[in-house]
Amino acid sequence: MNFHTRVSLPAAKRRYSHAHRFVSLGSCFADEIGKRLSRSLFGCATNPLGNLFNPLAVSEILIRATEGRDFREDEFFEHQELWRHFLVHSSLASTDRERSIQTANQAIKILGENLLSCDLLIITLGSAWVYQKKEYVGAIGHNHKLPLSSFSKRRLSPDEVSITLKRAIQLLRKENKKLEVCVTVSPVRHLRDGLHENNLSKASLLLAVDQMVETCPEIPYFPAYELLLDELRDYRYFAEDLTHPSNSATEYIWSQFRESYFDDKTTELISELDQVLAMLNHRTLHTDTSQYAAFKAALQKRIHSLANEIPQAQSLQDAFQQLP
Known about the structure:
about 45% helix, about 325 residues, single chain, alpha/beta, 2 domains, four-stranded parallel sheet, 8 strands
């Protein structure tokens, strides 16, 4: 008897290894994927300017980074003693305007450099709801706790999402011809918008991605949304807030991503790396025993083996040196 629906995984156009570089951009779920790529010692730039949930903000950041356009001084505003920008997360804001501008421009430069050199760009769309401000013409990625009465809110149509994203991706691929793109819809539920409104938003995103895949088959869709909502399909796979995936759910989605996008040897290396990281994080009460000495010898041997396969594995040796 089958108790759940299996989601079929797309066949990636290319299989990736530790020799490739990645950029993970978009909602907080993009952070989760980027975190796991970095943990597995892949070169990955993850949301250098902070999370971006709606496609207009993601597209504008992609275009600005590709064109190498700095943020201008007149784009920043002061609120609650910090100088902010509507496309930059408040964690990068400062009480000093020049420092805020400098930090934002450094982040957009880092993103641009990584976009022009990376092999796979992972875009995670969170919401089709966008906020607009009468006197501001650009996309808004962050409200920065300004009064909601100063914004108007609307839901993007699938056509708007598809056209805007395709324009940004096509511009980027003119500059980085080796670049592949993977688009996914975040399984995180935006319940502050309302449950029905969240479902409409996700529907717009899913329809938009379907249009993109149909007209641009070189831009595949990875079904993170369906893996949680259709395959796992249980509240035990959500965190306590009932909006974000639990750690076990995110790990499962990550395992499916690995199966789709990495070659067999790389998948084996990731599994070995996970075991080595668990050993490095293991703490014992008695470090003066022969058993612990044997444990360290075995661990060092495995680290040396990984270092021969993964250039970034030096960090494992550094962690090993910190062991008692």
